[in-house]
């Protein structure tokens, strides 16, 4: 499962995952908190890649404008960690920002895994900073995937 609301970034993540797991992936995509939460209530996933800043809901006619949630990814993480079906789902945070907002404080991406474990008792598989023109995120993601 990939939770990502930036189409270009989503395309890059999918292309990379498909190159690593050639022909063996079934990827479910959600672009907002509401759709991710709904899907997590119906299915179990082998892996969740989560962007931390996502929208409240998908843009739909008559539903009002979606609003950005800087901690929307944390809400998805809580949903996974505290559900009966998702508690064992490895989660990887993949964000384009240098910091992740945790309880209104900016925490550097490289410290976020430890902070999330200490504050919320949720052990994420890893936290990676996505930079569009830099392949470092792919190398870091690969190391995490190999450890799962």
Annotate the secondary structure layout.
Blueprint: E1 2-3, H1 7-20, E2 29-30, H2 33-40, E3 48-50, E4 54-55, E5 68-69, H3 72-81, E6 91-95, E7 99-102, E8 105-108, H4 109-120, E9 126-129, H5 136-147
Parallel strand pairs: 1-2, 1-3, 3-6, 6-9
Antiparallel strand pairs: 4-5, 7-8
Describe, in plain words, how this protein is organized in 3D.
The chain is an alpha/beta fold. It contains 5 helices and 9 strands; from the N terminus they run βαβαβββαβββαβα. Strands 2-1-3-6-9 form a 5-stranded parallel β-sheet, with helices on both faces. Strand 1 (2-3), helix 1 and strand 2 form a beta-alpha-beta unit. Helix 2 packs parallel to helix 3 (72-81). It is globular and about 35 Å long.
Features:
single chain, alpha/beta, 5 helices, two-stranded antiparallel ribbon
Structure described in brief:
By secondary structure, the protein is α/β, with parallel strands linked by helices. The protein has helices at residues 7-20, 33-40, 72-81, 109-120, 136-147; strands spanning 2-3, 29-30, 48-50, 54-55, 68-69, 91-95, 99-102, 105-108, 126-129.
H-E order: EHEHEEEHEEEHEH
Count of extended strands: 9
Q: Give the number of helices.
A: 5
Average pLDDT metric = 87
Residues in β-strands, percent: 15-25%
Rg value: 14 Å
Major sheet: order of its strands? 2-1-3-6-9
Biggest pleated sheet: 5 strands, parallel
